Amino acid sequence: MAKCDICSKDVRFGLSVSHSNRKTNRSWKPNVKKVKIVDNGTTKSAHVCTRCLRSNKVTRAV
């Protein structure tokens, strides 16, 4: 599951372009970790991207 439960960041698709200008499909996946977070006083498990973890958008459960 490559989708953040906090900011809804998910997979993006595009083209990989070689030196000879040949194009093939590729994807960019977010760096998503499964962590335990505190949500409204309860602890739950969620898929959170590392940007949300780093910017303190969620509080990790101890």
Radius of gyration: 16 Å
**What is the helix content?**
under 10%
Name the shape in a single word. Answer: rod-shaped
Quick one: CATH class? Mainly Beta
The CATH architecture classification is Roll
Structural class: mainly beta
Give structural notes:
One of its GO terms (biological process) is translation. It holds the Pfam family Ribosomal_L28. The protein has a single domain (1-62), classed as Ribosomal Protein L24e, Chain: T (Roll). The longest helix has 5 residues, at 50-54. It contains one helix and four strands; from the N terminus they run E-E-E-E-H. It has 62 residues and is mainly beta. The chain has a two-stranded antiparallel sheet with strand order 1-2. Strands 3-4 form a two-stranded antiparallel sheet.
What's the short version?
One of its GO terms (cellular component) is ribosome. The chain has 62 residues and is mostly beta strands. Helix content is 8%, strand content 45%.
SSE blueprint and pairings:
Elements (H helix, E strand, L loop, with lengths): L11 E6 L5 E6 L3 E8 L2 E8 H5 L8
Antiparallel strand pairs: 1-2, 3-4
Keywords:
mainly beta, 8% helix, Ribosomal Protein L24e, Chain: T, two-stranded antiparallel sheet, 62 residues, 4 strands, 45% strand, 1 helix
